Structures are given as C-alpha cells and as structure tokens.
Amino acid sequence: LTVKQLSEARRALDEPLFADLAGDVDVSFEFFPPKTDRMGETLWSSIRTLEPLSPRFVSVTYGAGGTTRERTHATVRRIVEETGLDAAAHLTCVGASRAELETILRDYWDAGVRHIVALRGDPQGQGERYASHPDGYSSAADLVAGIAAVRPFEISVAAYPETHPEAHSAKTDLDNLRRKLDAGATRAITQFFFSADTFFRFRDAAAAAGIDAEIVPGILPVSNVAQTRKFAHMCGAQIPPWMDRLFEGLDDNPAARQLVAATVTAELCRKLYAGGAREFHFYTLNRAELSYAICHLLGIRPRLGEQKRAA
Ligand code: FAD
C-alpha cells in the first residue's frame, strides 16, 4: 500500500464506530401474525425481549391477499392491551371494499390503535397482477386518503430504494411516494436493501423531488440467503454477490450464520448512521436476537420501567 492509501484507510476509521454511538437512535420492530401456538410463543417471547428497548412503535403485517386479517387484528390488540408499546397495524387494499376497511379502522381506533402502515398489498397468487376490489382502493395513496378521512391516525407508507417492480420508472415511483405523503402519511419505511449507498441515493433523490418526510431505512437482518433471495426477487431488492460469498458453506452451521448476519447488518447500520440515519425499522421475522444485538451496537439499552405508555 502507498502512504496515500494508508492515510485514506485511516480516514475511513474516523467514521463513527460503534463505541462512539451516542444512543441517539430510534427504532421500530416489525412482526408478522403467528399461524400456530408455537409460532405465537416465539413471537411473544421476541416482543417481550425487544420491549425494554422502548421502540418508537412495533408493527404487525397483514398477509398477502388479506389472508391474516383476523390474526393481524388479534396480535395488534394484544400488544395494545398487554404491553406498553405503541402498535401500528399494517393494512392493505386487497380484496376489501372501502366500507369494510372503514369498519376495520373504526375498530382499531376504538381498541386504542393510533398508527396504520398503509399499503396497496399484493394479490395472493404469485405472478398475478393487482386488481382492486370493485368498491375498493386502487393504490396505497387512495387508501391513505381514505384512512385520514375516518380518524386522525398516524400513517406510514412503503418506499422502494431500488424502485417498486411494477413502477414505470424510479421517477414515477417517487412521484407515487409523494402522492402518499401528500394524502396524509407522515413517514416512509423502505423495503429492505443491502447497500447503504442505495439508501443514500434514494434519500437524495427524494430530497431533490421536494420530499421532506422521514424516510426510515427498513433493515432485514439476513441469516438465510436462499430464503431472502426468493423474497427479494418479488419485491425488487437486490442481493449483492458478496452476500452470497459471505454465507457460502454455512448452510449447516446456524451459529456461524447468525454471527455473520449480525456483522453484515451491523455494518450496514453503522454506515447508515454515519450518513445521518437516526431511525431504523427492523424486519424481525419474529426473532429477537439479531435485532436486539444490532440495537445494542447502535447504543440502545433497555429502559426498564420507563416504557413510553406506562407513564
Ligand atoms: P403503491 O404505493 O400503491 O404502489 C404500487 C405500484 O403502483 C408502484 O409501482 C407505484 O409506483 C405504482 N403506482 C401507484 N399509483 C400510481 C399512479 N397514480 N401512477 C403510476 N404508478 C402508480 N404487503 C402486504 O401484503 N402486507 C404487509 O403487511 C406489507 N407490509 C409492508 C411494509 C413495508 C415497509 C413495505 C416496504 C412493504 C410492505 N408490503 C406488505 C408489500 C407491499 O404491499 C407491496 O410492495 C405492494 O406491491 C405495493 O404496495 P405499496 O403500498 O407500495 O403500493
């Protein structure tokens, strides 16, 4: 290495390292509704583990085609009733009329839910194109406007740093994000991605398009690349080749896979922090360990007895 290269390498070390992180970070955690009692136990143990980290909110997804409707509602309600956490319910337009969605929203409001993650959703069958219910909403932007007309919910929406697969272009996708924010959403949560530069480019493009709402990076702590690849393909996220190489040969070594996953995800979060991100949304897949470890590295510590709503 030349002296110049060594000196540049030294400068790279001046980026904030974990030891310097001030704990000035907010996080949220996403869960999916459990299908079985056993899965329910895993979910609730994860919620209890992550709860002391005082997330800004926790959210519960809504299955493709609205398939988890009842389970989503039950999980969200239980979080509201049994924890001090702010719960956000994901809601999609799929297969539901405006009147049905209005009833769901009123029920949520009456149950104490104040935050909706508003999505168009995807059809249940793979490869099918989205078709709206005859009396329903055709896009997330329409749903946002509908929600805002029912009750004054806080509304978050989805954003796609690598562009939504159905979008005509990155520009039209960004125009769509703006429509969702103009319709009443106040926060965009991104699809997962694995390169910090991808996020920064998207954030810059959003800023250049006049979007000034919070854009929260969605973080997927990957420990199963094969499974993630299947999912990434459907939602337009790229799995970089280096990620395959990192997990090579670890199929039968889950402990090593977890350590590699923690390292890769922590490094992504550190870069995002260095680039100014102070809020992170974790796709937990209902497991607490990786998200907890990364939050710890980001300087977040349990605030026992200080849960937001306990006061
Ligand atoms: P929209 O914002 O409506 O966009 C859909 C597509 O249509 C985009 O390509 C957009 O550019 C285009 N579009 C919309 N309006 C226009 C217009 N007027 N002109 C031109 N183009 C337009 N799915 C679930 O089923 N359940 C969940 O719980 C769930 N949670 C999610 C959480 C997050 C944080 C994210 C990022 C995604 C989630 N999804 C979920 C996936 C989501 O439903 C799909 O990605 C879906 O295909 C698009 O939803 P959307 O809300 O982004 O749709």
From TrEMBL:
Protein name in UniProt: Methylenetetrahydrofolate reductase
Pfam family, any one: MTHFR
Family, similarity comment: Belongs to the methylenetetrahydrofolate reductase family.
Cofactors that this protein relies on: FAD
Reactions catalysed: (6S)-5-methyl-5,6,7,8-tetrahydrofolate + NAD(+) = (6R)-5,10-methylene-5,6,7,8-tetrahydrofolate + NADH + H(+)
SUPFAM superfamilies: FAD-linked oxidoreductase
PANTHER family: METHYLENETETRAHYDROFOLATE REDUCTASE (PTHR45754), METHYLENETETRAHYDROFOLATE REDUCTASE (NADPH) (PTHR45754:SF3)
EC number: 1.5.1.54
